[in-house]
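With this grant's support, we have settled on a layout for protein records. A representative record follows, to show the layout.
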Amino acid sequence: MPGYTILHQNAPSERRRLAAALQKPACDNPPLAMPIAPGTRLGPYEIISRIGAGGMGEVFRARDTRLGRAVAIKVLPSEFADDAARLQRFEQEARAASALNHPNIITVYDVGSVDHAPYLAMELVEGKSLRELIDHGPLPVRRIVDVGVQIADGLSKAHEAGIIHRDLKPENIMFSADGFAKILDFGLAKLTPLQSDDSKTVRRDSTAGTLLGTAGYMSPEQAAGEKVDFRSDQFSLGTILYEMASGARPFRRKTAAETLTAIIREEPERLGTSVPA
């Protein structure tokens, strides 16, 4: 695959495994462990309607029958039910994320499993994602500063608690009705499968020597398969700010492998004079 051979020059076997996986078709909506329909009960939560789907499963609007409040339920793919170690990591990450109390971080209420279907109960945010806003073109400078400050504030809170997002991207940032930016999916990046699109999450493990995150928004350390810390999230935020200002991803190439190579070895194009500094 063009551009890939420069990534892990001292680890040819890892190169071959990653190259083969990158050539597999991406699976945007992996199958769930059980069919979900309106009226289905997941513990104390009654499913109302389907909101959407993605690489981490499907999201539903539901009602907490104990408290009478609306919640979002994320039902994870069936592959989780067959991997006890992954499921345990997911539960650990969910518990850690639930301890975060910040207006710019989605609140995690609960984690559970019904009929081998693991799920997360979260704060329901009925609004648009940052991806939806960026897809209409560059944002005004005031909006960029406002959103950037909110995301940075939320990340700072998580980093103080020792939690790294690892997969920060516009799709993981939602806006509530009152204008707050909300960061989603802390910790879930560890668990997602390898996919070929540079807007999709790339690797499921977080140990050094493997890749984790979304190709178009990775830090150089992530792209090289190195162990990362909070600074990796900061790099991802910088990539998002660049896209908000220009309407383009700074390292986007034809393939995920070429994108990773560009992140490691190249500098992004300078923003044009038409972009407000």
In short: The helical segments are 12-22, 84-98, 130-134, 141-160, 220-223, 230-246, 256-265. Strands lie at 41-42, 45-54, 57-64, 69-75, 108-114, 117-122, 173-175, 181-183, 201-204, 212-214. Residues 141-160 form the longest helix (20 residues). The chain is about 30% helix and 20% strand.
